Amino acid sequence: MPSIIPKAIFNTVESIKQQSTLLNVSLYPTFAEKDYQCARSFLLAYKNNNATFKTYRSEIERLLQWAWLVRYKSVLKLSREDIESYIGFCQKPFKSWIGAFQTFRFITKDGQNQPNSKWRPFVANSSKSGLDFGMPV
């Protein structure tokens, strides 16, 4: 299990219009920038449909994080076997990738928008009730 906890990549439509490069670049492999640009372009195609944008943003971000931090591959080089492995991962992600509750993806600190350290790509729900977050089941 990787010790790196993913950080949010994409915020709002407005912020990704302005954010032309990947934040927290030191956290990711060098090939991540090209993947980021492809994903950013795709997401901006849905800038006028907020619900679709948010859904795609979550799914794309999970895939990017998994590809970069778990598979150490560009999403552009994923195979069918990789995708099958990713689907299995989504069904049982690392505990460190699961938040106990939904949080804001980004927060403002010292006047700067930055990833919220409490954000995780997955949020515990009834299908993940076996996880111990200190909450009653």
Detail the topology: elements first, then pairings:
Elements: H1 13-18, H2 32-44, H3 50-71, H4 80-91, E1 98-99, E2 106-109, E3 112-115, E4 122-123
Parallel strand pairs: 1-4
Antiparallel strand pairs: 2-3
Helix pairs in contact: 2-3
Can you put this structure into words, describing what you see?
This protein has 137 residues and is mainly α. The protein has a domain at 13-96. 39% of the residues lie in helices and 9% in strands. It is built from 4 helices and 4 strands, in the order ααααββββ. It has helices at 13-18, 32-44, 50-71, 80-91, and strands at residues 98-99, 106-109, 112-115, 122-123. A hairpin with a 2-residue loop joins strand 2 and strand 3 (112-115). The chain is globular and about 40 Å long.
Strand residues, percent: 5-15%
Shape: globular
Physical arrangement of strands within the biggest beta sheet: 1-4
Please tally the β strands and state the result. Answer: 4
Instruction: Specify the biggest β-sheet.
Output: 2 strands, parallel
How far is the first residue's CA from the last residue's CA? 26 Å
**Uncertain regions: pLDDT < 50 for 5+ in a row?**
132-137
Question: Which structural class should the secondary elements be placed in?
Answer: mainly alpha
Helical stretch tally: 4
Q: Topology as H/E string?
A: HHHHEEEE
Roughly how many Å is the radius of gyration? Answer: 15 Å
What value does the average pLDDT take?
88
- Helix content, binned percent: 25-40%
